[in-house]
Structures are given as structure tokens and as C-alpha cells.
Amino acid sequence: MTEETFLVPTNQYLKAGIHIGTKFQTKYMARFIYKTRPDGLAVLNLAKIDERIKIAAKLLATYSPEDIVVVSRRENGWKAAKMFGKATGVRVYAGRYPPGILTNPNLESFIEAKIILATDSWPDRNAINDALKMGIPVIALCDTNNQANNLDLVVPCNNKGKKSLGLLFYILAREFLKEKKTIKSDEEYKPQIDDFTEE
Question: How far is residue 27 CA from its own chain's centroid?
Fold first, then answer.
């Protein structure tokens, strides 16, 4: 993959540390790992990260914003996820996921979602389990230490860093809006990367 086909310049990905994994690697995530650094940290393949963000944006764009739910139990993803919701009109649960909202029609807060996006498959497992019960597809951001069973689409990335998650949700929102034909080009996209990133 050449630099020109990336969604953002390579150095922007690198600066955000979107490719820096953990010291622990699961068997499933091995295919997304480019190398292991001398300090033991795994490094994810940038081309695969970029490719999966494109696929995720295309997949999400086949749904109406009100049918999509984004969950982020991990605090580092709250600002990015909320900004994604603001930019796209998608429903976001940052913090504790309210149990049963996808599965119990008797709840006042019950919602009918058609797809969910989880920031991290481990802290967000309750939402993922509910989605599985309801037969709702799941997209999850996965680091090198994540299990990826029961996920329909894995987007490999550093899902722990604020800058990494900020950049990922920034790109995802932009690509989603382009797929939806809400905006025609990157230039029409108003939010700035800083709007998604915690300082």
C-alpha cells in the first residue's frame, strides 16, 4: 500500500501511536502484527489498520445513524466516541453500558440497534454479549492483547491511548460522512482532530 492511499498521512498515524500494541499478543491478532520491538511491544501493521478503518466506515454507512450504537467503557475513548456521535448522529454510550438496553423490550431505555461498535472487546464485553444474543453484528477496535472471537469485524489499533482513539474516531467519522454522501470531500469535514483528542 502506498502512502497516497492511506486515509491520513503515515506520520499522523505514527504520531498518534495508533500502531503501538501491548507486550501481550493473542493468536487471533498475530496476523495484524508487523513486528515486535526490542522492548517487547508489538507493532501493528499500518496498512491493515488503514484498510480495516475503511471497511468499518463502509459497513457502518450501510446503516442509519439511529441504528448504530457505539460503546466505550474505557475512559480514554469517551471524548473521541462522544465527538464521533456528535459528528455522525450515532448513539454513544461512554462509560458504563446500561445492561439490557439491547435485549429487554420492557425497559424504558430499550433501543433497537442494528450494529454496534465497541472501543475494546474486553471492557465492552457486556454490550458485545447483548449484541450476540440479539444477532446484531459487532465491530470492535482490538489491540494485540484482545480476543477476537464473536466479532464480525476487527479493526486493529492501539485502543488504549487517547491520541490513538481520537485519530481513529476522527477518521471514522469523516469516512462515514463521505460514504453517506453527507460531505463530498475531506475539505468539507468541519471537526478538527483536536476535537476528538483528550489533552
Answer: 20
d(CA 25, CA 104): 36
Quick one: 38 exposed, middle or buried, by C-beta within 10 A (0-12, 13-18, 19+)? exposed
**3-196 domain in CATH 3.40.50.10490?**
yes
Q: 78-102 pLDDT, tens per residue?
A: 999 999 999 999 999 999 999 999 9
Average pLDDT over residues 11-16: 97
> Is the whole-model pTM more than 0.85?
yes
Per-residue pLDDT, 149: 87
The rounded distance, in Å, linking the Cα atoms of 191 and 173 is: 9
Q: Look-up: residue for cell 444477532?
A: 135
Half-sphere exposure of 187 (CA within 13 A, CB side): 0
